[in-house]
C-alpha cells in the first residue's frame, strides 16, 4: 500500500477501514481481479448469482469510493476507471477468458422498463400475437409495428424493428413488450475489465471462440513444425524428429552403398543372404550348390496378361519379319560379292 493510500485510509471511520481491508484481502487472494456491473439486477437475483459463483469466483459489492481506495492500495489503478455506477469487485483463480465465459453464460433474459436504454435492436417478430382483436392493434402500430387484424386475431405481418440499440424505451413500448412477453435484455454480471498477471483485459479481448482459437493455434503450431522439419531447422521441438529422419536416411545410404559399419552389419548380412538365395534359385544344377541352398525355389513368375501375350506375339512376328529381310539382304550381298570375284579372277 502506498503512503498516500495509507494516509487516505487513516482518515476513514473504523467500519470503512474494515471494509477496505476486506476488499484488499479479496484482491490479494486471487490471481485475477475484475470489475463487474450489477445495474438492474434485483437483490435476490444478485444473491443467487453470488451463490452460483461460489467455488470458482468471489463477488463483493461495496461503496464505489471504498472500492477505489482498495484498488489504488493494491496498485490496480487501471481498474479504477471502471468504478462508475453500480459495480462490484470479482476475484477468481481462473483465467480471464474462463471468467468472462462463465459470467456471460449466467445471464438470463429479462423485461425492459420505461426509461432504460435498449442494449440491442428491439424487434417484434412476424406472426400471430395471440391477442384478440381490439385496441392492442393500435398500440402495436403506434410503436412502429406492421400489425393488423386477420382471421380473428392480431398479427404482425413482418419482423418490425421498433427501437434501435441505444434508444430510450418509452412507456408505450414497455407495455407492448410486456404484453407480448418479449424480454429484450439480459440480466447478469457485466464484466467491465479484469487484470491478470499485470495485464488488463477488456470484454472485447475476452469475447472469443475458445475452441476455434485453440484449433487455430494447433494448426499454426503443426504448420510451423512441418516447415521446420522440411527446412531442416532444428528447434527443441523438432530436433528429435530431425535426428530420427537423418538417422534413417544415413542407414538407407549405408545399406545402398554396402558400407561396413557395426550397426549396419545385421542388415547388410540379411540383404546379402536374400540376394544369395535369389541367385541360387536361378541355378538348375542343385548339386553345384551348397547343401543349405539346395531346394531353394525361384519365385513364381507372374503370368502375362492376354494383352501382353498379344503384344509379345506381335513383337515376335515383327522380329521374325525383320530377320527375314536381313537374310534376303545378306543373300543379295553374297551374290554381288561372287560376281565381283568372278570379274576379278575370270
UniProtKB/TrEMBL annotation:
Keyword Cell inner membrane appears in the UniProt entry: no
Keywords noted in UniProt: Ribonucleoprotein, Ribosomal protein, RNA-binding, rRNA-binding
Gene Ontology annotations of biological process type: cytoplasmic translation; ribosomal large subunit assembly
Domain Large ribosomal subunit protein uL10-like insertion: 114-182
Keyword Transmembrane helix included in the entry's annotation: no
GO terms for MF: large ribosomal subunit rRNA binding; structural constituent of ribosome
Xref: Pfam families: Ribosomal_L10 (PF00466), RL10P_insert (PF17777)
Biased composition (Acidic residues): 305-337
Annotated segments matching region Disordered: 291-346
Listed GO CC annotations: cytosolic large ribosomal subunit
Function: Forms part of the ribosomal stalk, playing a central role in the interaction of the ribosome with GTP-bound translation factors.
NCBIfam families noted in UniProt: PRK04019.1-4, PRK04019.1-5
PANTHER family: 60S ACIDIC RIBOSOMAL PROTEIN P0, LARGE RIBOSOMAL SUBUNIT PROTEIN UL10
Family, as annotated: Belongs to the universal ribosomal protein uL10 family.
Subunit-structure text: Part of the 50S ribosomal subunit. Forms part of the ribosomal stalk which helps the ribosome interact with GTP-bound translation factors. Forms a heptameric L10(L12)2(L12)2(L12)2 complex, where L10 forms an elongated spine to which the L12 dimers bind in a sequential fashion.
HAMAP family reported for this sequence: Ribosomal_uL10_arch
Protein name (database record): Large ribosomal subunit protein uL10
Protein's organism: Natronococcus pandeyae
Gene for this chain: rpl10
Amino acid at each position: 500500500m502506498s503512503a498516500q493510500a495509507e494516509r487516505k485510509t487513516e482518515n476513514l471511520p473504523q467500519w470503512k477501514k474494515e471494509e477496505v481491508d476486506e476488499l484488499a484481502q479479496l484482491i490479494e487472494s486471487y490471481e485475477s481481479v475484475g470489475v463487474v456491473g450489477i445495474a438492474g439486477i434485483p437483490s435476490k437475483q444478485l444473491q443467487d448469482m453470488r451463490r452460483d459463483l461460489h467455488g470458482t469466483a468471489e463477488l463483493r459489492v461495496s461503496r464505489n469510493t471504498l472500492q477505489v481506495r482498495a484498488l489504488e492500495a493494491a496498485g490496480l489503478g487501471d481498474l479504477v476507471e471502471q468504478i462508475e455506477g453500480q459495480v462490484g469487485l470479482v476475484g477468481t483463480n481462473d483465467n480471464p477468458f474462463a471468467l468472462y465465459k462463465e459470467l456471460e453464460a449466467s445471464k438470463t433474459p429479462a423485461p425492459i422498463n420505461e426509461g432504460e436504454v435498449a442494449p440491442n435492436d428491439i424487434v417484434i417478430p412476424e406472426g400471430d400475437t395471440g391477442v384478440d382483436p381490439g385496441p392492442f392493434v393500435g398500440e402495436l402500430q403506434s410503436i412502429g409495428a406492421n400489425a393488423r387484424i386477420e382471421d380473428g386475431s392480431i398479427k404482425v405481418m413482418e419482423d418490425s424493428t421498433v427501437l434501435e440499440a441505444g434508444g430510450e424505451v418509452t412507456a408505450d413500448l414497455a407495455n407492448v413488450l410486456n404484453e407480448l412477453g418479449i424480454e429484450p435484455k439480459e440480466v447478469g454480471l457485466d464484466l467491465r475489465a479484469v487484470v491478470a498477471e499485470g495485464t488488463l483485459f477488456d470484454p472485447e479481448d475476452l469475447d472469443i471462440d475458445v475452441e476455434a482459437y485453440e484449433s487455430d493455434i494447433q494448426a499454426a503450431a503443426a504448420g510451423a513444425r512441418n516447415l521446420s522439419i522440411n527446412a531442416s531447422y532444428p528447434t527443441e521441438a523438432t530436433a528429435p524428429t530431425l535426428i530420427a529422419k537423418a538417422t534413417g536416411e544415413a542407414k538407407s545410404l549405408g545399406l545402398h552403398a554396402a558400407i561396413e559399419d557395426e550397426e549396419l552389419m545385421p542388415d547388410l548380412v540379411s540383404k546379402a543372404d536374400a540376394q544369395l538365395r535369389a541367385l541360387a534359385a536361378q541355378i538348375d544344377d542343385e548339386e553345384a550348390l551348397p547343401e543349405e541352398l539346395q531346394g531353394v525355389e525361384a519365385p513364381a513368375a507372374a503370368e502375362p496378361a492376354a494383352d501382353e501375350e498379344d503384344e509379345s506375339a506381335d513383337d515376335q512376328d515383327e522380329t521374325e519379319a525383320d530377320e527375314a529381310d536381313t537374310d534376303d539382304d545378306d543373300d543379295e550381298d553374297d551374290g554381288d560379292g561372287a560376281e565381283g570375284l568372278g570379274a576379278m579372277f575370270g
